[in-house]
């Protein structure tokens, strides 16, 4: 059985031992708390870094997509501009083609009309000589001798005038008209002046003599009238 003194000493040692163990336990507990908090902080930092990296990667991918789309848009715009130029060129060529075709059609129509209207031009010019001979024959008949007492001459004259009248009717039917400008002002488009003569009664440039009548076929002059014109008296 322990005495009082021995009991006190034993209790003192236990107290010291417990106090020492308490410090150890306290340190371990503190370290354990720190260890439990550290992974959480590391996880948060790791998650933040991964999010930023993902965002950067997404931005990079978006930037590449934008560049690709812009490149495609530029190519489409360039092709569209080329297409516009080609379309305008094609339209211009089509318009020129239509205009050329229309001009060719008009030229062909005019040629056909001219062919119809002037196909007899050479024949008409040749037959005008016959008309001139007939006219000279009529003019050569002395008018004073055309009487009932001279029936043969009278019948001849009437036959000549009737033939001349019928010939000019046929001329008119085919567009052949006579140009007899006596008393008209000289027109170089229809008349050919052979001489001029002083005439105080006529305005200068007036046709005073028709030596040979002219003719036009469908308004085209095939023979100008051969004329003499008046001029002012010299002072």
UniProtKB/TrEMBL annotation:
Organism of provenance: Laodelphax striatellus
Gene3D superfamilies: 3.90.20.20, Head domain of nucleotide exchange factor GrpE (2.30.22.10)
Statement: the UniProt record of this protein carries the keyword rRNA-binding: no
GO MF entry, a single one: adenyl-nucleotide exchange factor activity
CDD domains: GrpE
Cell compartment(s), UniProt: Mitochondrion matrix
Name by which UniProt lists this protein: GrpE protein homolog
Pfam families: GrpE (PF01025)
């Amino acid at each position: 059985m322990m005495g009082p003194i021995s009991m006190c000493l034993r209790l003192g040692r236990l107290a010291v031992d417990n106090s020492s163990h308490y410090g150890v336990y306290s340190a371990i507990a503190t370290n354990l708390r720190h260890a439990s908090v550290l992974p959480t902080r590391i996880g948060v930092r790791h998650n933040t870094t991964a999010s930023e990296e993902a965002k950067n990667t997404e931005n990079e991918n978006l930037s590449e997509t934008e560049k690709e789309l812009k490149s495609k848009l530029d190519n489409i715009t360039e092709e569209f501009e080329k297409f516009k130029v080609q379309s305008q060129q094609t339209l211009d060529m089509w318009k020129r083609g239509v205009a050329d075709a229309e001009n060719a059609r008009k030229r062909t129509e005019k040629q056909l009309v001219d062919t119809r209207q002037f196909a007899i031009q050479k024949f008409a010019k040749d037959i005008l000589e016959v008309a001139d001979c007939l006219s000279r024959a009529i003019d050569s008949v002395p008018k004073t001798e055309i009487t009932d007492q001279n029936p043969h001459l009278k019948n001849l004259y009437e036959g000549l005038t009737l033939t001349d009248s019928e010939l000019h009717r046929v001329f008119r039917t085919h567009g052949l008209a006579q140009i007899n400008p006596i008393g008209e002002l000289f027109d170089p488009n229809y008349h050919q002046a052979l001489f001029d003569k002083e005439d105080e009664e006529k305005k200068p440039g007036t046709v005073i003599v028709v030596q040979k009548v002219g003719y036009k076929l469908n308004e085209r002059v095939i023979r100008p009238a051969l004329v003499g014109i008046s001029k002012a008296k010299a002072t």
